[in-house]
Amino acid sequence: MSIIRTSLGQFISTTRVSLLESLKAPKPLHIVIGNESVDIDSFACAVLYAYYTPTPTAPFLSMPRADLALRPELHYLLNLLQISPKDLLFTDDPPLSALPKSTRIALVDHNRLEPALRVFFQDSNVRGIIDHHEDEGGSPNAKPRIIERSGSCASLVTNYFKEVFPTSGVVRGGLARLGLAAALIDTTNLTNKVTEHDTSTVEFLEGVIKGMPVEPGSEKWDRQKFFDDVWDAKNDIGYMPLRDLLRKDWKEWTEDNGKKLGIAAIVRDLDWLGSRQGQDSFLQGVKSWAQERELDLVSVMTTVGQGDEFKRELMVWALDDSVKSTIAAFGEKAQRADLQLQTWRDGGLDSEDGDRKAWRQFNLVASRKQVSPLLRESLREVVVEVKGGRESKV
Ligand SMILES: [Mn+2]
């Protein structure tokens, strides 16, 4: 069975079959994987990278299959691009343990192997990186190793492979829409966090779509409408229980001192979250989730609105007394990094003993990408009790 590239649906389906077949006979495999938030950008990057790269490469989503249910925006795109969900590859389907130890991995939309993969693979498995997060310095010999600032990582992937973009066929429309979905969502339709990579990608991919014949019965390309439809799908989360909202766009880290941190990004504000079943129940839900993940520190970052209405909030909660100092340390770092934090609702979510604080964040450009390094740094500075009762600064 060979990989068919006439449409994205065919490509994904034949890639899965061919991967499963090759698992029967041990031979080198190539996979590409996005980050564990599995947002539109990570999804698009993995599929686009796999499609464009000449070596047969299977795109993986960095989550178990069941979590696809938490991502209405991916369902919308899969339907639009006629990709069958059953053909996708997840961290439990096939199980990562079934992949050969020699598997060559490309990381997109992150640049360091995540814990789920670290169980089976090492930095030396990582052979390619295209990302727009802070460079964590791993896999220095990866080729490509592109880590640059851009609104969407899919813009970097598209630009890197521009020369091999197919010159004919309907697949051009699918590739273009997938790249555009990521570039437009991550820049709020080219109004936020836009870089040269994003504008050139949008221009290039829109050129592709406009150059294709409009199929009878379908509409002419309308960027605003396309963006609005994806945006609405992404925001269709009102029905989800809090635990799902927290784990839907979730990232976590374990620092060298063993302290563990997780940050949820949610596209509703703190008022909305607190209004559903009351603020106490919201806080209890965050705490239960953090305990389930065995965290020392948990954070919720919210975004709502577009354009002038766009708003950011941030809540940070030290769950263990040993990391309480993180809150103040983070406050100082946030000030130096100009996050422009202002106490949320006169301290309406702050705890009396200082282990939880919430802010409105007036620096609208700083997303989890910028905030997480500050929180991680604060956590690394915590004074850890070592055996024998001595204390050491780690
Ligand atoms: Mn991204």
From TrEMBL:
SMART domains: DHHA2. InterPro entries: DDH_dom (IPR001667), DHH_sf (IPR038763), DHHA2 (IPR004097), DHHA2_dom_sf (IPR038222). The lineage of its organism: Eukaryota, Fungi, Dikarya, Ascomycota, Pezizomycotina. PANTHER family: BNIP - RELATED, EG:152A3.5 PROTEIN (FBGN0003116_PN PROTEIN). Keywords: Hydrolase, Manganese, Metal-binding. GO terms for molecular function: exopolyphosphatase activity; metal ion binding. The keyword Manganese applies. Residues 227-379 form the DHHA2 domain. It comes from the Eukaryota. GO terms for cellular component: cytoplasm. This is DHHA2 domain-containing protein. Its cofactor is Mn(2+). The keyword Hydrolase applies. Pfam families: DHH (PF01368), DHHA2 (PF02833).
